[in-house]
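Below is how a single chain appears once it has passed through the pipeline. First comes the sequence as given, then the structure the pipeline wrote out for it. We keep one example in the README because the format questions we get most often are answered faster by looking than by reading.
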Amino acid sequence: MLTSVAMRYCAFSLGAILTLYPTLTLATSALWLSQWHASDDKVLTMDEQTRDLILDGIQDITFTLEQTTSKRALVRLQESRNVCVSDRIYNKERAQYSLASTQPQVVVPGLKLYVLDAFIKKHNIAPVDLAQLALSDLLTRYPHFRLGTVAGRSYGKAIDEELAKDAHKLRLWQRSGSDMGEGVIDMLGSKRIDALLEYPPVFEKVREKNAIDTAIHAVSLKEIPEYGVGYVLCSKSDEGEKAIRAISKQLRKVTKQRAYLDVHLSAMPASFKQEMLRYYNEVYGTDFTLNPNESSTANNH
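Resulting structure:
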């Protein structure tokens, strides 16, 4: 057993070491949550692939990986001091309980409004005319319009504020559960709703996987940006601040590497690869180009 003198000496020695070497810190642990997908295939998602590239270069923090639902992840982010969450929009509400990476974890082509062809024909609307509307115009003009949404998901400031209005609450068909966005796309395919908001690569992947052959149009609404970004969010605490600093430092490195771009490109349908490249270079300040085999299949959009 250490004597009181020996214990004081050990404490002094550790303090002296940390004073002389301020960059030397004790290893800490954190929990990294990714969205859980109800799927039999075990292919890593874009979130998980980029996460692994980020974590590969972090030495002083031990991350435990776990999958959970989107809604539950945000609850745990608020309740715990050492939790990080993949690929989230950072808004005013989330800034109250979380810290965001200085750069996005992912960038993708912007949200589209996917609308049933049957709804368009019923109301004699041209898809090009819908693209001139804001979501508020659409919901006001068509009082029986059924829009599917995902519980706990942020669609960006302008859309979130519109969806939060009391006047729309009975008009929104909200989906919660383990399948999240995939379930909403299936609802549209079975015509249980008239429309939904989703990122093109996600929608196209689910439509192909689930063999959805319903006639559907993709429309760009006025208030939706050309591309979307998702940040890593960590707990608003000392532990979370240390984790987000390490993650941000690593992001500045990996986003300049071709492997990180390739994860983004591999998640895109061929027709979106050129668009994806343009947004990636804009967001991360890079000047990558497509490989010859990618260029030949990326000009059909």
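Residues 4-20 form the longest helix (17 residues).

See the next section for the split statistics.
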